[in-house]
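To whoever is covering the structure queue this week,

Two jobs came back overnight. Logging them here so there's a record in the thread.

Job A:
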Amino acid sequence: MNLHLFIPNLFWPDSTFHEIYQDLSLPAIETIFAKSLRTKDESQGVEDWLCKAFSVEKQQDIPVAPLTLLADKARDTETGDGYWLRADPVHLRVEHEQVLLADSRTFSISLEEACQFAEVINKHFAEDDLSPSCGVDNRRKLISLVPLCADRWYLYMQKPPLIQTHLLSETAAKNINEHFPYGTEEMFWKGILNEIQMLLYEHPLNQAREERGDLAINGIWFWGGGVIPKLVTSTYTNVWSNDVFPRSLAMACGANHTELPVNFDSWQQQNKSGRHLVFLDSLHGKFEYGDAYGWRESLKELEKEWFEPVLNMLKKNAINQVTITTINKGVAINFSITKNNLYKFWRMGKPFSTYVN
């Protein structure tokens, strides 16, 4: 059995914030790191790493939308041969002359609400006067959102738009003015996004949300466009994740896919022989939203629930090899270890923070 733990943001990305590692007791992961073979690869982020792991090539964008559609689509929804964009609901907040974006990790929305918001937007664009004399771009008529999941909406197009987009994950908690779609048609798509913001501003649906203490859904974000990849392959036989993207990649290549167990012991009770990819995302996003305390607590939980039992299983030779991969500042760092590596007594354990660079 081979186990690959993919853990984005295992290190706090701000290397100047040394205090975040103070008084962290992490003997198991420090032992694993000390005995491991360390390698590095370039990576543009979580979605990029996952695509490479499943041999998915980048198109205009990393093709997240057509892949997650495999998991989200309704039974009577045909994916078609066209181009799909994610068009996810977001909350936008003006702060110090910036417009900051917050994704669904910061708010809740029901599928019923999602359908109501999508209906408002779709009706607005469907009612455009598209007569040649009015000068309105006919493509506006094609803006019809499909909310297959509460926080994952889609836009279908017969032809690819002449833009590239920024991943939602790399835009979260950042100024949207620096992350708008770019390319030949950037002004058209920026105009659509701005128009939707104005449409949803103080809409009765958002007034109702704010009255009950929920964040307003006052924008959407286009990202992850593409067509269904012709080839999706992987050496993994099993994928474990609560995130829809790795599950979708597993579906596309025929690998088994299962929700992430609460800890290693629960995982061990369900596992089978083969090559397992386990996506542990509890640290992911903590840095973007400045949650240093949450990051520390999540790391301590990983030490207790995953790293300690993994190390014990290595010592018992119950796992052939363990690889831990994290992404930090555009670099994927891999730590690979077998039981034999544990006998390398000359590799002494060092504080966790020394492995950051």
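Job B:
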Amino acid sequence: MSDASTTKVLPVRDYDLAATLTSGQAFRWQWRERSWLGVIGSHWVRLRWDAFSITAETAEPVSDWKWLADYLQIQSDLNELVRTFPDDEPMRAAVAACRRLRLLRQDPWECLASFILSSSKQIVQIQQIISSLCERYGEPLAVAPGCAPAHSFPSPARLARATEAELRACKMGFRAPYLLATALSVAAGQFDLARVGELPVEIARAELMKLPGVGRKIADCVLLFAYGFPSAFPVDVWVLKALRQLYFPHRRVTLRRLHRFAAGHFGPNAGYAQQYLFHYMRTKANARSQAAALPLNRNLNPRPHPNPQRANDP
């Protein structure tokens, strides 16, 4: 007798689902009728959340929910993680403002492609590009009655069969050749995404940065959000602002110097600390109605870079 079901209740402690899904890690979640709707792999999912549990609903019966628990990283001991953060005023303020924020563990291909598409775009624009890409090239998924159609994230092989002009029709602009070249490389087996997770972090970063359109920031996002490298520390416009304003006020510091500082200051879970700083700066700016002054993305470059290999480096 099958124990498959379409609903699952996951007990949680210290988990803020809303902050987690809106903190610039993933781009396929929407708030609809007091629920979060999204796609994880081949599953359309509706998530409801309270202080003690996350209730998940799928459109088709599921017998093994490990994929969801892994994605949400509900097993992580947040208190232990936070205790590894530096005990300084900026970090205490960030933790207080973003308490219970978590990191997700995403599929490496979707995460890589999404952050290639994030370059110089606001979060709402990234969501629109990815939505269009999935509608055109993803596989249709079963959804609950009354819900909008949903599609899986397109595979590298499917995107490799598209043309640059077809990808540009998804309004991704100069990012189209980067995404296409990366999809071709992965689909042909020239780049092994599975192998990246088995490498030391420095080598894994260097491997990712060989891909078109992938500089250090995007590489670190993928290392942190897809592979779970805890020391990966993406420095985007918001984190750059946090480091300069909170740790180096009235001083001129280079990006290289900030990377060295982050590597030594934020401890073994520097990537987690980074996410708190990122979300703290964004939400603080929004509260002061200053968000329009900076793009709500994870990118440092305001314009396309002439060299695709370095397109997302400052």
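Note for Job B: The chain has 15 helices and seven strands.

Please reply-all if you pick these up so we don't duplicate work.
Q.
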